[in-house]
Amino acid sequence: MSDSIQTIAADSKVSMHFALRMEGIATDGTRKKDEVDSTFNTKPAEFVLGDGNLLPGFEEFLIGLTVGDHKTFNVPAEKAFGQTNPQNIQEMKRSSFAVDMPLSPGLVVSFADAAKAELPGVIKSIDGDYVTVDFNHPLAGKNLEFEVQVLAVEA
């Protein structure tokens, strides 16, 4: 490691633990934090800042952090996965799905977009012969909590 200060900057190679949480509602009606993803009990994440592994809205919180920093940030939906786009919620005929496919709300179904790339959609509701599918990212519209512990930084 050539950088004696080991401060995260553009193009830094970073090794860190992270946890991503979103606010939820407990069964008793109180607010709670649901963990979406975490590396704290596994191998740390390694990436180069700016390589596309993290969204820019998350990376901006890392700039200036140094080895040993352990911080928690609140990331608004706009800087995370964006707001929910109503145009990404589509109503489709039940006949568009395989006859033997058991459809239920919450089920993630894989579709192919115009370029034949995989596009996941979440079944929101089924009403007679119509199925409502949400193609927004599952974390769209969610404010998130981002906890990081910086383990190593290389220039």
String of helices and strands? EEEHEEEEEE
Number of domains: 2
Overall, the morphology is: elongated
Query: How many beta strands in the DSSP annotation?
Result: 9
Helix content: under 10%
> How confident is the prediction overall: mean pLDDT?
91
* CATH topology category name of the largest domain: Chitinase A, domain 3
Question: Given the helix and strand composition, which structural class is it?
Answer: mainly beta
Euclidean distance between termini CA atoms: 7 Å
**CATH hierarchy class name of the largest domain:** Alpha Beta
Keywords: Isomerase, Rotamase
Catalytic activity: [protein]-peptidylproline (omega=180) = [protein]-peptidylproline (omega=0)
Protein name: Peptidyl-prolyl cis-trans isomerase
Domain PPIase FKBP-type: 11-105
What does this 3D model show about the protein?
- This protein has 155 residues and is mainly β.
- Helices cover 5% and strands 43% of the residues.
- The protein is built from one helix and nine strands.
- Strands 1, 2, 3, 4 and 9 form a five-stranded antiparallel beta sheet that branches. Strands 5-8-7-6 form a four-stranded antiparallel beta sheet, with no helix packed on it.
- The longest helix has 7 residues, at 56-62.
Would you spell out the secondary-structure blueprint of this structure?
Elements (H helix, E strand, L loop, with lengths): L12 E13 L5 E8 L6 E4 L7 H7 L7 E6 L13 E5 L14 E5 L5 E10 L2 E5 L9 E11 L1
Antiparallel strand pairs: 1-2, 1-3, 1-9, 4-9, 5-8, 6-7, 7-8
